[in-house]
Amino acid sequence: MGGCRRSLLLLGFMFVIMAYYQWDMLPQKRAERIHQRQELRKQSLREMCAAEEAFSEGKRSLHDMSNGELRNLIVDDKHGIIYCYIPKVGCTNWKRVFFVLKQGEPYPDPMSIEGEMVHVPNMVPLLNSFPRTEMKAKLKHYTKFLFVRDPFVRLISAYRDKMLGNQKYFYENFGWKILRLYGNQSAPHLAPGIRPSFYNFIQYLVDPRTEMNEPFEPHWKQMHRLCHPCLIKYDFVGHQETLQEDAEHILKTLMLEDDIKFPPSYENMTSTTSVLDWFRTVPLEDRRKLYKIYEKDFKLFGYRKPSELLDG
């Protein structure tokens, strides 16, 4: 009996040791997984940029870019980082992080910062506010990162937020125009419950006249046109689909993981089935036109072509 008890105790002790060892290895395995994922993302980006000069739209360096084209790059000089923000890809929370970094230690909790406040101009330092020589030096020496998202899922998010949301600016500047052109509406006021349908929104995007009149609004502008990944060599390419893990990894790399917690994302991720549901009202021809508009984003950032939406 005593030998049996000793064997059980020994077995239990071995299980504890193994569990402790596996637990101790978890952070290391997670870091290795993130590193491997990053290498694949960056390699894919490099290969696509090398294969298709069209991705850089005829530009070869910073000299070919206007200050306006660099308006989405946020700088933190203390930590030597540059972040290119893309609307509808966790940018409010990243702007909160950069805002608290600017405040200095002890850093406030990013969640204590009002989301609307960080979108006010000049709340965070932008790269294009510096002289060209400084811009070039920062782009060369600082750690640069961006976050991207499945292009069609991003469009759905933009539609839900800006077209269905009760936002006067977007209704007056875009919603009303879309209703008038594609929704057979004529009342020029914000009528309760009257909003462009998702199909109306897609019609607006695929209409060649839209961008002939003015550039796409940033919430639905192509991601590569906001962040220029074939001209700027990013050190980290985060995905919305792995946002929390990627964000924590960046903060850890900057040795800020004990000082700043990246705000949790409360937005429900849109599933493939949900994407299919959204596009059910969109004719096949318009789906294909839409894909052509965002094809470079799909290819550059490693998102698969949504064949289930595009094959007749």
TrEMBL record:
Q: Name one GO cellular component term.
A: Golgi membrane
Q: In which compartments does the protein localize?
A: Golgi apparatus membrane
This protein's UniProt keywords: Carbohydrate metabolism, Glycoprotein, Golgi apparatus, Membrane, Signal-anchor, Transferase, Transmembrane, Transmembrane helix
Q: Does the keyword Ligase apply?
A: no
* Signal sequence annotation: none
Q: Which InterPro entries match?
A: Carb_sulfotrans_8-10 (IPR018011), Sulfotransferase (IPR005331)
**EC number(s) on file:** 2.8.2.-
An annotated Gene Ontology molecular function: sulfotransferase activity
Q: Which GO biological process entries does UniProt record here?
A: carbohydrate biosynthetic process; proteoglycan biosynthetic process
Give TM segment ranges. 7-23
Topology of the protein relative to the lipid bilayer: Single-pass type II membrane protein
Tell whether Nucleus is among the UniProt keywords.
no
Instruction: Kindly give the Pfam families that the UniProt entry links to this protein.
Output: Sulfotransfer_2
Per the record, the coiled-coil ranges are: none
In the record, the note on similarity to other proteins reads:
Belongs to the sulfotransferase 2 family.
Q: What is this protein called?
A: Carbohydrate sulfotransferase
Q: Which organism is it from?
A: Larimichthys crocea
